[in-house]
């Protein structure tokens, strides 16, 4: 009887160790990504458009290092003026490609009314780069 009990305890102990050692705790962690506003240097696109037509603009921006990637376009306010800014994401690892080249993304929008629209992207900490569009 003691032999059976000892074997049972040993089996339970062995299975417990095997279960704990097979956990996913040792898997690679997801890299942490940092985001930061990138400054826009150029906006290219049509100067005119029609109501409810989608217009596309090529937006060129600068990043801190070559490992940065586009994340999103978000709203920003400088003083009391509202505009847009490009957000870039940076990996947490050290970037070995230190010489960044200007990057591009496409901004699309659809006007719902006639008139002149100003597309404003953050150019520096204190000003916007503006593209005027006449909607007919």
Automatic annotation (TrEMBL):
Signal peptide: 1-23
Classification via PROSITE patterns: PROKAR_LIPOPROTEIN (PS51257)
Superkingdom of origin: Bacteria
Keyword annotations of the record: Signal
Protein name: Lipoprotein
Organism: Flavobacterium crocinum
């Amino acid at each position: 009887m003691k032999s059976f009990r000892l074997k049972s305890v040993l089996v339970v102990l062995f299975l417990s160790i095997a279960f704990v050692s097979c956990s996913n705790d040792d898997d690679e962690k997801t890299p942490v990504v940092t985001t930061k506003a990138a400054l826009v240097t150029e906006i290219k696109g049509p100067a005119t458009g029609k109501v409810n037509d989608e217009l596309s603009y090529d937006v060129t921006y600068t990043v801190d290092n070559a490992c940065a990637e586009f994340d999103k376009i978000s709203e920003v306010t400088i003083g009391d003026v509202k505009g847009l800014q490009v957000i870039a994401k940076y990996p947490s690892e050290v970037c070995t490609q230190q010489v960044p080249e200007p990057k591009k993304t496409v901004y699309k929008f659809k006007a719902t009314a006639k008139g002149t629209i100003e597309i404003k992207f953050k150019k520096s900490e204190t000003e916007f780069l503006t593209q005027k569009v006449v909607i007919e």
